[in-house]
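Retro notes, item 3 of 5
We never archived the inputs for the thiamine diphosphate complex last cycle. Fixing that now. Sequence and ligand:
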Amino acid sequence: MSRAARSSGLKFLRASAAAALANNSESSFFNHHRHRFVQIPRLFDDPRGRRTMSSEKSDGDQKLQIEVPVKFIAHNIDTPPSQIVDTSKKEIIDMFTQAYMMRRLEIAADTLYKSKFIRGFCHLYDGQEAVVVGMEKALTHEDAVVTSYRDHCTHLGRGGTPLEVMAELMGRFDGASKGMGGSMHMYRREAHFFGGNGIVGAQTPIGAGLAFAYKYNKQPNVAVAMYGDGAANQGQLFEAMNMAALWDLPIIYVCENNHYGMGTAIERSAKSPNYYKRGDYVPGLKVDGMDALAVKQAFKFSKEHCVSGKGPIVLEMDTYRYHGHSMSDPGSTYRTRDEITGIRQERDPVERLRKLINDLGLLEPAEVKAIEKAQRKIVDEAVAAAKASPEPTSDWLTKNMHVDTRNVRVRGVDAYASHPVV
Ligand SMILES: Cc1ncc(C[n+]2csc(CCOP(=O)(O)OP(=O)(O)O)c2C)c(N)n1
Ligand SMILES: [Mg+2]
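Structure as it came back at the time:
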């Protein structure tokens, strides 16, 4: 790198893993969970000095470019997104902070469930945090999101508070749905988050409807419908995708492939577990869903694709859930402990962000510890406030169940009007 470039603060940070690229194959999960996240030295320190990039932002943030190690695999896409992701010091720290908080919140939910503060259904998201964290770095809250029952962290990603999640889990009035929905029913209308859905796959046609509204209103936004690998076998997904493709709807279908639907491994439930190809005529991308930066890049690419009028796209997020399917599943009868431990050691999304911060020297270790402490405090306070929150009163039981249709005319007729019999 030239002296001039160096003096103007140009920095190119390249965190790459040639080994991971070599290991990557489209079918094998275990090939790339072995990958090592190798940092190649900062180029201004690198005697080869091949590339220059970027500069200090006016707000003092440090612009960075990071090469993500696992290759995007494309289906029906001529030019897949670049492996080199534009980011910044602030963004990486922010992603780590959010992912760490999500992890703590899910661990707290596990404890509260076991001590019976939380009852009923409860599906935890730990292991999958990078999907939501990376996604939100490429979207705005004007874009719509709809997901499955595994929705606690999606709510946080949409700007919801830990108290809204915790109180909802405990059936308290400060919850996202006033304590009347529970774990599967987070909802945040003001951030265009259309919820948690308990019926497997139900969110996929809802997503098409949301995308239809954007297209109809000529709004330059995108709808995101997230579903699991199990849900990927649902008929309604194909019906919705067909319509979305016919009408070029701006929708990103996100298959969160955590490799199991309840206790069934993908190889046993899907003839083709290449979910990014399952849209057939719909373009698709396979993404390392444990790498928040890769996720952000894929969403940025997809949003541009959809908003430019090219229609839907499928993103397969290769990810993993650490907990069982729900709290009634210990999660250890259909997979080995070694498998879970291996993923934690090699691919954990929170640890990868921490490692990035450490390797690039973005923060001192004590500063990272301070972030963790602050996030733990936020979660602890949310738990205490949720416990102190009242249960909804009985007059809320029927609220939001029925719309008062008096004086609403359907096809010119008021359903409540009496008509003479002729
Ligand atoms: C229509 C329907 N069928 C079955 C169920 C029961 N069920 C709940 S979750 C689930 C597995 C879904 O797995 P996946 O789509 O991979 O999502 P994950 O739980 O892994 O996030 C099943 C069969 C349901 N809720 N709805
Ligand atoms: Mg699954």
